[in-house]
Amino acid sequence: MKILIAEDEFTTRMLVQVSLENWGYRVESVADGHEAWSILKQKAAPHIAILDWEMPELDGLEVCRRIKEMGTENPPYIILLTARDQKKDIVKGFDAGADDYMTKPFNDNELIARVRVAERLVRTQTSLLESVTELKDVLNQLEMIQGGMEVCQSCCKVLSNTDNEWYSIQEVVKHHGDLRFIHSICPDCNQE
User: Fold this and answer.
1) What are the two backbone dihedrals, phi and then psi, of residue 141, each rounded to the nearest 5 degrees?
2) 80 pLDDT higher than 60
3) Range(s) of the domain holding residue 114
């Protein structure tokens, strides 16, 4: 899983990056919020982002707000990593859209534990979205079957749901407009 680190302080950025890479994660790191935002708004953005609060260009809170405003179905999981440790700051971070909050200096074991939680949640969210997409496809297919009209594969006559009679496809389209058809065989063609 790919993780983005946005931290303007070089030493902290390198410590986080080396720790994550040692645990097998692919890491992309940037030094300011503008670069982080450019990466996170892309379609193939990393699924987890570790953002510093105070960065040049855009701060971590503004990046969180922008991601939240995008309204994507599966936004990145955001961990704010900051020296701000006051309760009001923690609340402000969560209100801006952060999913987790860590204070500096950070502990390697705590960082990996939080990243693993983030990874589990990202995988669960992705799996749920895939299931929802599959269910929507199945429902669309069921609606098409239930609302569709049978069309004879041989003569192209259409079975009317209202009077159970077979009509030419031109007549049906002329009177009903946008219809869904189900391939079938009319009684006349079935006897041939």
Assistant:
1) -65, -40
2) yes
3) 2-135
Q: Are residues 25 and 112 in the same domain?
A: yes
Question: How far from chain centre, in Å, is Cα 125?
Answer: 8
10 pLDDT more than 80? yes
Of 35-49, 51-65, 66-80, 135-149, the one with minimum mean pLDDT is 135-149
Comparing CA positions, the residue from 71, 55, 72 lying closest to residue 4 is 55
Q: How far apart are CA 80 and CA 132, in angstroms?
A: 30
Query: pLDDT tens, 47-77?
Result: 999 999 999 888 999 999 999 998 888 889 9
**Spatial distance between the Cα atoms of 99 and 89, rounded to a whole number of angstroms:** 14
CA distance linking residue 69 with residue 64, whole number of Å: 9
pTM of the complete model beyond 0.85: no
Distances (CA, A) of 94 to 13, 22, 49, 97, 147: 22, 28, 14, 5, 46
Q: How far apart are CA 140 and CA 21, in angstroms?
A: 43
Cα gap 175→153, rounded to integer Å: 21
How is residue 146 written in tokens?
A: 């239930």
- 113: domain CATH number is 3.40.50.2300
Strand segments (E) across the chain: 2-6, 26-30, 48-51, 77-82, 100-103, 149-152, 157-159, 166-168, 181-184
